[in-house]
Amino acid sequence: xxxxxxxxxIGIGKKYQIETSYGDNVVIVIHDDGRRELYNFDEAENESxxxxxxxxxxxxxxxxxxxxxxxxxxxLETIEVALDDLxxxxxxxxxxxxALQKSIGELEVRKMTGASIIAAIEKDExxxxxxxxxxxxxxxxxxxxxxxxxxxxxxxxxxxx
Length: 161
Hints:
It contains four helices and ten strands, in the order E-E-E-E-E-H-E-E-H-H-E-E-E-H. By secondary structure, it is an alpha+beta fold. Strand 8 and strand 9 form a beta hairpin. The longest helix has 12 residues. The chain is elongated, with a radius of gyration of 19 Å.
């Protein structure tokens, strides 16, 4: 995992510096007004250049795309992202799951597990924060968040047959 350096920019916002596993150096500046700027460090010219400026809505849209909310590469049937104690995982619900045709509310997901379903991907549609009335259908990919033990309980509900 790459190392992220966070710096407070007084009166401006925050700056995040990331050196990726591919050797790229990226700087992201989040302004207090919601604007985001992405910079790439050019080794040859020894300078950073702004390559993209986004408003808040655009930044969230790009984050969803980059984070895999709208498309998950086929090689990643199950993926896990860890943010301190928070785990985010993607699960494709099998065709023989006992959770099929039941709503999130009916399954009492949050009450029974402590985890949350934060998105659902059905065919070409992504539903962000599906409500308790959302029905689990065959082949839907659910993006779930919680502590590791909560995710484990939710996985039992979703993947048991």
